[in-house]
Design brief:
Helix 14 packs antiparallel against helix 15 (about 555-605) and helix 21 (about 1000-1025) crosses helix 25. The two termini are about 30 Å apart. The strands form seven sheets. Strands 21, 22, 23, 24, 25, 26, 27, 28 and 29 form a nine-stranded mixed sheet that branches. A five-stranded antiparallel sheet has the order 4-3-2-1-5, with no helix packed on it. Strands 9-8-7-6-10 form a five-stranded antiparallel sheet, with no helix packed on it. Strand 17 and strand 18 (about 865-870) form a beta hairpin. It is built from 27 helices and 37 strands. It is extended, with a radius of gyration of 56 Å. By secondary structure, it is of the alpha+beta class. The chain is about 50% helix and about 15% strand.
């Protein structure tokens, strides 16, 4: 039975022929099978996918993902060997890579069991599975079909030659009788079902029975004839006695009736060998003839080549002679050229000597010219300064003219208002006058009637009483008439005075308009002159830069001269230009006055500025913004640019649809539809006063603030900035302000910024026109507090000994003071203080003198060599090497006031001590802040009743524990400091830090709950205005420094992350030989470990909250089992949410919200099937994903996909612009689409990483089990356990049903696990396993029953144990029998097993 390993792995020609036939049946493409074709074919073998994957990796020798005929044959051979029960080799044997060889007949008789025949003890049916197996993997059919047919007819009766058959005669007779008893129909053969009961009664394993069937079925017809049945039963007896089964049937076990077939095969092999030898002889003869013909051909080619070489040599010799002649001629020519060059060199040297003398003479003359130019340069500089002062005077005059123009415009507006008021009064008086005239005209007739009536009454002797009454009435009427007449006279006089006053006002208005027109003309001339000057100056600067660039490229010898000439030319040019500018200005002024006179004459004569337009000039100007560009078509029209601002005279009357305005110093008409009127800003309310009124725009007031710290926030709507950024604050309310940086706008905490103080200097006098304005004089200092978009600034007047005044002023009247300005703030804060090391006497006017030991305040340190300082009111420059920084200014030296001690230390040690004391100082400050929160916020809030005790516990978490922890750390540091002295260095701090940082676990709890605390505080603040106001009141405490409570909640996280930085700084400046190095490293590791624990705690808290959100918002009725998201997984530890987002199915365009966990992938959709809004609307705004305010409900779209069954792939065409990817799950493919390409990359990477981690974890678990099971034990016996069934197991599901109970059997390190049975409390396993016993009295058989869960750890259903010694004792009494074992640690349950212990014979 000893078989060579080479023959085991070699592939016979008959096997190769079968494999080629199967290869062709699969329709290969270009001689190769794809992975998908081979996968479907190989899976029919019933082997696990993992085993098939290993076979593929061995057979695919070139790793191209395809299989040719040889690789396919190798794979089929490996499948056959695996089905026979042998393991796969670690690498492909060499014999498999060789061409097929003829093998002995004994190696060609092996066959395979039908793949489905022994899939389970209850499904053994060779007749039903043989056709499929033969069509798939007929891996060892090595016999000729015709001979097999001829020999198979003789299988019913034994023939001669049976005497050498290894099966004993007694066994033959016994099993022949058994065969006849089973063959009731007298067919001469037995089928698979007829033999199954006989074979299974042997209690052999499935693998052994499969091997026996393979060896016994010699003719591979799926049936057993008499000799085959005898052979099978003989092999069963061998297996029962412990003899190993052969891989192939030995020749002495081959039935006699089948040996003719083997002899025929050997004869065929011999004939094939002779045929191949004959072909080899013919091949050699053919090669000999070809070799002789090739040698003849090479000899002829060699002769032709030699003749060609002789001709080529003759040609080379001829060319060599010609080349030598040409070289001689060339050398002669070069000799003549060298002589000519030598002559030219001598002439050039003579010329250069003369040139050098000439240059020396010119140099002397140029030096004289340079001296003259230097003197001229000084003179021109003085003239240039004079021109500059003149330019400054003109600029001042221009600004004065602008100021006067604005004042006059305001006065004119006031006069117009007064005129309108007087006109309205005159109109009212005229109406009263007309009323009185009407009344008088009505009273005069009445008076006449009364007079006539009186006369009539006199003549008629009216009684005295009546006469008296009438006389009284007449007198009253006369009085009333006189009163009315007096009033009428007074109204006439007042009307006359008003009319005279109106004429006077009209004359004043006319005079003011003429004066304003002249000033406007002068102002426009000055503006044009200024623009021309600026343009000319810019052009000169460009020319200067260009000329300098060209001059730098010239020779070094001429650079000095040319540079000075250029400077002089520039100065002369500038002086000449200034002179020409002045002349041009005066000429333009004269021309403008003449133009104005001509224009006035035309207006008096009724002329028009524009055809068909009657113009009435007015001084009321309104700003318009151009919507479109407009090009002037005549001299009286105005050209416009898009979005430009035009000053429009609104009262100028012209043709409808046209406006008169000015732009860039030009005045003219333009279409009204090409521009829109700018909105007029709101005016401040001011009390009525006799002073002139003036408009102060207050729109969009903004203040500049500078960032003190870097602020970053993931929240949408927050403004992020870095330290030092300038923020324009637009809205200030509470502790959160709104501002902008460029185009970014958002909210930010107010305590992260401070206001920028901008100083300005008034250069012209201004009188306040309203109570909101400032009356200022030239030279006064103002601090700018706010600015608006119209050029008006809000400032505070700085004056010694007076109350600070605030008001508005226009920016055109001030000049901003920069850092180099001579006007400094009265309260200048020194940068630092220094001590003079030596005496110093000032050598220049800008320097200062001081004495040794004198204390000096440093104001500016921009220059590293010269600092600006102040002492006793004297300010000046001082050399930095004459002073030393005091300990009050250097942070690394503030801990020690002794300069001698500091000087004795190395720079590295000084920095080390500085960082150590910085740690102590910042720890004290941090502890003060923690205690401040307890005193200022916690205690008042706990008794105020605004919050419940639970809310207080959630908001402040374990604040008191933080105080206790850091108080202990600070006391330890102070004690360490006190050991060496108050102002002495600290030597060893690492061990103390390591000890105290070990107790920082309280920060893990606080930081994990910080987000919930901040969310609750924000909710309470937004929901309850009284509580918000109460917090603001508490924050006004001077100790808070304007910081709200939410800002203090950030300090613990900031502090715990700062410890590693401080310790690292100390460690970097500690020498390697210092005894504190190792303790500091240990302390640094401990600090980083605490930070990692804090970060991990925050992540776990966030993950837990997200899983709880999913539990409440995702409906899992369709899940296989009750799914608890926030729980342990089956084999990966706690469940984690790795990624989530929106995906689309490409076919149905359905929107899904997908959650990726570390063990499965979950697809969800909205629970409301009638909702038509996309998923993106569910998770935007306030109702975004994982928000506690969200009421969105989702439901499962598909059963969760386990990641160990998932394969994610990118699309085959990566050039596609659509962000697609594929997910393959067992036999189904999902094609999904993301919104962006980056999202697709994220999904693919995270799914692939999670799947690989899941598979790797399962692989490690299986490898541990395989390793323990594959160990060969040289023990004392073998224990066979047949796990039959279990009964009355406890229910684990909430609904009382069982899930998937399975059993695990162990003896020492050996472990077997049965398959799970679905949904039953009484599973039937019928599972057989074998254990090797090493110690009869120590080994124990342990049986554990568990419930297989998919989404959580397996549920424990009970366990039991039986010592091997007890099993031995029971078998001595009862033999192998079925036993009932009760489960412990469970309320109910029992297991039925069959135990069989076989002990080996111990050597004596």
């Amino acid at each position: 039975l000893n078989i060579s390993p080479v023959n085991i792995w070699s592939i016979s020609p008959e096997e190769r022929l079968k494999h080629d036939t199967q290869f062709d049946s699969l329709t290969p493409v270009l001689g190769h099978l794809s992975g998908e074709q081979a996968k479907k074919f190989f899976l029919q073998s019933g082997l696990p996918p993992q085993v098939l994957a290993e076979i593929w990796s061995l057979a695919d020798m070139n790793d191209d993902g395809k299989m040719d005929r040889l690789e396919f044959s190798i794979a089929m051979k490996l499948i056959k060997i695996t089905l026979q029960g042998r393991g796969l080799p670690p690498s492909l044997p060499t014999s498999m890579k060789q061409p097929p060889t003829v093998t002995p007949p004994s190696m060609m008789t092996s066959s395979t069991l039908p793949l489905s025949g022994f899939s389970s003890p209850m499904a053994f049916s060779p007749s039903t599975g043989m056709s499929k197996a033969n069509s798939l993997l007929d891996l060892a059919s090595s016999s000729n079909s015709s001979s097999t047919t001829s020999l198979a007819s003789n299988s019913n009766s034994p023939k001669t030659g049976s005497c050498d058959w290894s099966v004993p005669q007694a066994s033959r007779l016994k099993y022949r009788q058994q065969f006849n008893g089973l063959d009731k129909l007298m067919t001469g053969y037995l089928s698979g079902p007829q033999v199954k009961n006989v074979l299974t009664a042997s209690n052999l394993t499935q693998t052994q029975l499969a091997t026996i069937w393979t060896l016994a079925d010699v003719d591979k017809d799926g049936q057993l004839r008499a000799e085959e049945f005898i052979l099978a039963m003989h092999l069963v007896d061998m297996a029962k006695t412990g003899c190993p089964l052969p891989l192939t049937l030995p020749s002495d076990l081959v039935p006699p009736s089948f040996r003719l077939k083997a002899n025929f095969a050997r004869g065929s092999a011999e004939l094939e060998k002779r045929r191949m030898a004959l072909e080899e002889e013919q091949r050699r003869e053919k090669e000999r003839r070809e070799r002789e013909a090739r040698q003849l051909k090479e000899r002829r080619e060699k002769e032709a080549q030699e003749q060609e070489n002789r001709k080529r040599a003759e040609e080379e010799r001829r060319r060599e002679m010609e080349r030598r002649v040409e070289e001689d001629r060339q050398r002669e020519k070069e000799r003549k050229e060298v002589a000519q060059q030598e002559l030219e060199r001598q002439q050039k040297e003579e010329w250069e000597r003369g040139r050098k003398d000439d240059l020396c003479r010119r140099r002397a003359g140029e030096q004289q010219e340079i001296a003259v130019l230097r003197a001229k340069k000084k003179q021109l500089q003085m003239e240039l300064e004079a021109v500059g002062s003149r330019h400054k005077q003109l600029s001042d005059c221009l600004r004065d003219a602008q100021t006067k123009r604005r004042i006059q415009r305001a006065e004119l507006d006031l006069v117009n208002q007064r005129r309108d008021g007087r006109a309205s009064e005159i109109n009212s008086l005229q109406i009263q006058f007309e009323d009185f005239q009407n009344k008088l005209s009505q009273l005069v007739p009445q008076q006449q009637r009364l007079t006539e009536r009186l006369h009539t009454m006199k003549y008629n002797h009216i009684p005295a009483v009546a006469l008296t009454s009438l006389s009284g009435v007449v007198v009253e009427k006369g009085v009333a008439c006189r009163r009315l007449k007096d009033q009428l006279d007074a109204l006439e006089r007042e009307t006359t005075d008003k009319l005279a006053m109106m004429d006077h006002y009209q004359q004043d208005i006319k005079d003011l308009r003429e004066q304003q027109g002249k000033q406007q003309a002068v102002l426009e001339d000055l503006c044009r002159v200024k623009e021309l000057k600026l343009r000319e100056l810019e052009r000169r600067r460009e020319e200067e830069r260009e000329r300098k660039r060209r001059e730098e490229e010239e020779e070094a010898a001429r650079s000095f001269k040319d540079t000075h000439i250029f400077i002089c030319d520039m100065v002369l040019t500038r002086v000449a230009w200034c002179c020409r500018a002045q002349e041009e200005e005066s000429r333009r002024c004269r021309e403008e006055e003449e133009d104005k006179k001509r224009t006035a004459d035309q207006m008096e004569r009724g002329g028009a500025l524009h055809p068909s337009l009657n113009v009435e000039r007015s001084l009321t100007l309104i700003s318009y913004r151009a919507l479109y560009p407009f090009t002037a078509r005549s001299a009286n029209e105005l050209s416009l640019d898009a979005d430009c601002l035009i000053e429009v005279d609104d009262e100028t009357v012209g043709e409808p649809g046209w406006l008169c305005g000015s732009y860039r110093g030009n005045r003219g008409w333009f279409p009204q539809s090409y521009a829109e009127r700018c909105p007029v800003p709101a005016l401040p309310e001011a009390p009525a006063a006799p002073a002139l009124l003036f408009l102060i725009p207050l729109c969009s007031v903004q203040s500049e603030y500078v960032a003190l710290y870097t602020y970053e926030s993931p929240e949408v709507g927050d403004l992020t900035f870095s330290e030092g950024d300038v923020v324009m604050v637009t809205e200030r309310e509470g502790e959160w302000w709104r501002g902008c940086i460029g185009d970014q706008t958002g909210v930010f905490p107010s305590n992260y910024v401070k206001q920028v103080t901008v100083s300005s200097l008034y250069i012209s006098a201004v009188v306040a026109l309203t109570t909101e304005q400032l009356s200022l004089s030239p030279g006064q200092l103002i601090v700018v507090l706010a600015k608006n978009t119209t050029g008006w600034w809000l400032g505070e007047l700085q004056a010694r000994g007076k109350k600070r005044q605030r008001g508005w002023f226009h920016s055109s009247h001030v000049k901003l003071l920069g850092p180099t300005s001579s006007k400094m703030s009265p309260a200048t804060v020194p940068v630092c203080k220094v001590i003079a090391k030596y005496d110093y006497t000032a050598a220049n006017q800008d320097e200062m003198s001081f004495f040794k030991g004198q204390l000096i305040n440093i104001l500016d340190k921009d220059n590293p060599d010269w600092w600006k300082g102040e002492v006793n009111g004297v300010t000046g420059l001082l050399p930095t090497n004459y002073v030393t920084v005091t300990t009050d200014s250097d942070p690394s030296q503030q801990w020690c006031a002794d300069l001698v001690t500091l000087d004795s230390m190395t720079p590295s040690e000084r920095k080390r001590q500085g960082y150590i004391h910085e740690l102590i100082h910042t720890e004290q400050t941090y502890l003060d802040d923690l205690e401040l929160v307890m005193e200022v916020f916690y205690k008042p809030m706990s008794v105020s009743g605004h919050l419940t005790e639970d809310d207080m516990a959630v908001i402040f978490v374990n604040w008191s524990e933080l105080i206790t922890c850091n108080s202990r750390l600070l006391r330890s540091l102070h004690a360490l400091k006190a050991e060496g002295g108050a102002n002495m260095p600290v030597q060893l701090i690492g061990e103390r830090l390591w000890s105290e940082l070990s107790d920082m676990q309280v920060y893990v709890t606080f930081c994990s709950c910080q987000l919930n605390a901040a969310a609750l505080l924000q909710h309470k603040t937004n929901a309850h205005p009284h509580f918000r106001q109460y917090l603001r009141t508490l924050a006004t405490n001077y100790r808070c420094k304007g910081m709200p409570l939410s800002s203090f909640f950030l300090k613990p996280m900031q502090r715990i992350t700062r410890y590693p930085l401080l310790i690292k700084n100390i460690l970097e400046h500690t020498l390697a030989c210092h005894p504190d190095v190792e303790p500091l490293r240990a302390a640094l590791e401990r600090a980083e470990e605490v930070c990692c624990q804090v970060n991990e705690g925050v992540r776990e808290k966030e993950n837990s909250e997200q899983l709880d959100w999913i539990q409440t918002h995702v409906q899992c009725e369709g899940a296989i089992e009750h799914l608890v998201f926030n729980s342990q997984t089956n084999c990966l530890g706690p469940r984690k949410l790795l990624h989530s987002g929106r995906l689309h199915k490409t076919k149905s365009t359905r929107e899904l919200w997908v959650f990726l966990f570390n063990d499965f992938l979950l697809f969800t959709q909205p629970a409301n099937p009638f909702s038509s809004s996309p998923l993106s609307t569910y998770f935007t705004g306030a109702d975004k994903l994982f928000s506690t305010k969200s009421n969105t409900q989702l439901k499962m779209y598909k059963t969760p996909l386990f990641l160990n069954e998932v394969l994610v792939k990118m699309p085959s065409h990566l050039s596609s612009d659509e962000p697609l990817f594929h997910i393959s799950h067992i036999d189904r493919m999902y094609t999904l689409k993301t919104d962006t390409m980056n999202e697709r990359t994220t999904w693919v990477q995270r799914i692939k990483a999670a799947s690989e981690h899941f598979i790797e974890t399962q692989k490690r678990n299986r490898e541990r089990a395989y390793q323990a099971r594959s160990l060969l034990f040289s023990g004392v016996g073998r224990l066979t356990v047949v796990l039959m069934e279990a009964q009355e197991l406890k229910a684990c599901r909430p609904d009382g049903k069982m899930s998937n109970p399975y059993c695990q059997l162990t003896v020492g390190a050996q472990c077997y696990t049965s398959r799970p049975v679905s949904d039953t409390p009484d599973p039937k396993w019928n599972f057989t396993c074998h254990f090797f016993i090493q110690d009869l009295y120590q080994d124990v058989l342990s049986i554990s029953v568990s419930d297989k869960n998919l989404f959580s750890p397996d549920e424990f259903l009970g366990r039991t144990a039986v010592p091997v010694a007890t099993i031995k004792k029971d078998m001595e009494n009862m033999g192998a029998a079925t036993r009932r074992l009760l489960l412990h640690e469970a309320p109910t349950g029992e297991v039925w097993v069959k135990l069989d212990l076989q002990l080996y014979d111990q050597p004596e």
